[in-house]
Each structure stands twice: as C-alpha cells, then as structure tokens.
Amino acid sequence: MTRIGILTSGGDCPGLNAVIRACVLRGSRDHGQEFVGILDGWRGLVEADFIDLDWMSVRGLGKLGGTILGTSRTSPFGERGEAGGVAHIKANLRSAGVDALIVIGGEGTLAAAQILSSHGVQIVGVPKTIDNDLSATDYSFGFHTAVEIATEAIDRLKTTGESHHRCMIAEVMGRHSGWIALHAGIATSAHAILIPEQKASLDQICDWVQQPFQRGRTPLVVVAEGFVSTEMTQPHSERGLDAFNRPRLGGIGDQLAPIIEERTGIETRSTTLGHIQRGGAPSGADRVLATRLGRAAVDAVKDADWGTMVASRGTDIVRVGLEESVGRLKTVPPERYDEASFLFG
C-alpha cells in the first residue's frame, strides 16, 4: 500500500482544501492509498510534523478557504544546504513510512519540489497561485476566486466614488503578472488598468483619469502591486523583504493617488485589497478545478509518474514535467492587454 504525504506551501489560496479532499477520497477509495498530512509546508517536512489523513478528516473541506494543513514560506533545505536538506528529508520520509509526496504550491514551492525530485524523492506537483502566473497550466485554482473578490470590492468602491465624484484606485495582487488586475479591470469597466507587463507614464494615467471625469463619470483605476510607471525604476516597496529576500510589494495605489489629485484636481482615493483576495470560500469554478487536479495527482502517483505536475489545458487535465512548470512565468501578453485598452479613458 502506497503511503502519500501531502503538503501545502507558500501563500494560502482558496481551493487548497478541495485539493486535499479530492486526493484523500480518490486515493483511499479507488487506489487503496494512505495519506499523511505534512503541517505548515516545508517546515513540517523538515521537522517531521505529520498527521494522519483519512476520509473522515476531509469531510466538508471542498467549500472551506485556507488550508487545514497550514502553510509557510520555509525553505526545505535551510541551513543544511541542498545535499544535507535532501538527505534529512529522505530520512524523515523513511521514518514515517511515506513513499511519495504530493506538493501543492506555486513557482517557489514547485522549484524546490523539482530539486527534491532530481535527488530521487518521488513527487507529484499541483499548481497553486492566485496570480495565475505558472506557464505550464492554463489556469490555477484560486485565480477565479481572487478575480471575483476583486470585482465585488471594486464595484463597491465605484458606488462611493460616484457619490463623492472622486477618482478611485483599487490595488490588487500581482507581483510579476497582471492577470488579476486585467480580469477585474475588464469586469468593472476600469478607465485604466496598470500591470507589471505594461509601462505607462504618469501623464498618460492622468489623461485616462481626466477623460471620463470630463464626461461626468467617476474615474476608476485598477493597478497591480508590481506596476512600474515610466518614471520608476522598480516596483514600489517599503515593507522590507520576505522569507525569500524578495521585496514585499504594496502601496503603489497610495503613491499614485496624491499625484493624480495634484495633477488633475480630482479628489482621489486608493484602496489596497491585499490579503482579502486570498481569503474566504473558493468559487464554484475553483472548487471544480481543485477537485479535478487533486484527483489527477493521486492518479499520477498510482502510475508512478514522478517529477510531474498536473495542469489544466483547455478543458483537459494533463501532466507536465516539473521543470516545465517552473521554467518561466506566464505574464499578460500585449494582445491580451490590447483587448482591454479600448476601455481606457
């Protein structure tokens, strides 16, 4: 009987629990597999912090946000380095009788999984990112929910903006890719959508704001946290570094608001949605996608198809190599941005 460890690592995301549920139900009912939950991502694997998972422990999880296993941004290698970290992890897996791992995470998590796989750890990956920036999959669960949350929040901002005749700026997540901003901006008929992939000058942004105001409309700007204007050299960051020594982004909306107000004379307010986009119950679409990916992951384990990641391609769920999943980020191509640009101004 195959004994499988499941971990969730990196930022939390709506749909993680639905993946865990699907893995355990499919694996235990159809393949006779056993499951071990690894707590708090790579930290739990390094420290051998494990719990047993069975069908009773995953009942009703499909609709719950977050992850019952917890998560962290811990490196699986830590101070031991790659070789020592791999040896330590293998020893922990042997002690717990764990034969294989299902690793649910984004680019950083899957990159670590690829390294472990290259050292002989039997791994299958499941893509997780609300940013939808993994190139090997058309969509990742959590993205649809994040767009829905952002759309609802921006609709609410528009009504207060209309009441006070203000320009409203909504800042959404998106470090390197602007998928959330693009989709939420189109859905809410934003007058400007600012994303990391496309630079715009402050003069251009102000022009986009002034045009609708002169028509009696309330200007709406949707900006991704990683946006860089032509006057900037790097994304706005004033919150230090994260666990991977990356700048903690956020606050570009607050930077833009006084500039727009000064240059246009239009009262301008900014709201940062932040972690609201990660929280709460997953949408119906994300519950379905997460369930399909979880089912596919345990099927890949059954087939001993190690070093792969399950992914969505069109309406199908396929397997791709882990190296493909972390090869490059999926950013918004110019033609997709052009589809929205006719709305601007």
TrEMBL record:
Binding locations of substrate: T129, I130, D131, R166, M173, G174, R175, E225, R269, H275, I276, Q277, R278
Pfam families per UniProt: PFK
Cellular component GO terms, alphabetical: 6-phosphofructokinase complex
Function: Catalyzes the phosphorylation of D-fructose 6-phosphate to fructose 1,6-bisphosphate by ATP, the first committing step of glycolysis.
Catalyses which reaction(s): beta-D-fructose 6-phosphate + ATP = beta-D-fructose 1,6-bisphosphate + ADP + H(+)
Pathway: Carbohydrate degradation; glycolysis; D-glyceraldehyde 3-phosphate and glycerone phosphate from D-glucose: step 3/4
GO molecular function list: 6-phosphofructokinase activity; AMP binding; ATP binding; diphosphate-fructose-6-phosphate 1-phosphotransferase activity; fructose-6-phosphate binding; identical protein binding; metal ion binding; monosaccharide binding
Source domain of life: Bacteria
UniProt similarity note: Belongs to the phosphofructokinase type A (PFKA) family. Mixed-substrate PFK group III subfamily.
EC nos: 2.7.1.11
Subcellular location, record wording: Cytoplasm
Name recorded for this polypeptide: ATP-dependent 6-phosphofructokinase
Protein residues bound to Mg(2+): E107
Assembly description: Homodimer or homotetramer.
Limits of the Phosphofructokinase domain: 3-301
Site, as annotated: Important for substrate specificity: G108
Residues that, per the record, bind ATP: G11, R73, T74, G106, E107, G108, T109
Gene Ontology biological-process entries: canonical glycolysis; fructose 1,6-bisphosphate metabolic process; fructose 6-phosphate metabolic process
InterPro entries: ATP_PFK, ATP_PFK_prok-type, Phosphofructokinase_CS, Phosphofructokinase_dom, Phosphofructokinase_III, PKF_sf
Cofactor(s), names only, from the UniProt record: Mg(2+)
Biological source species: Arthrobacter subterraneus
Main location: cytoplasm
Alphabetic keyword roster: ATP-binding, Cytoplasm, Glycolysis, Kinase, Magnesium, Metal-binding, Nucleotide-binding, Transferase
HAMAP family: Phosphofructokinase_III
Catalytic machinery residues: D131
Name of the coding gene: pfkA
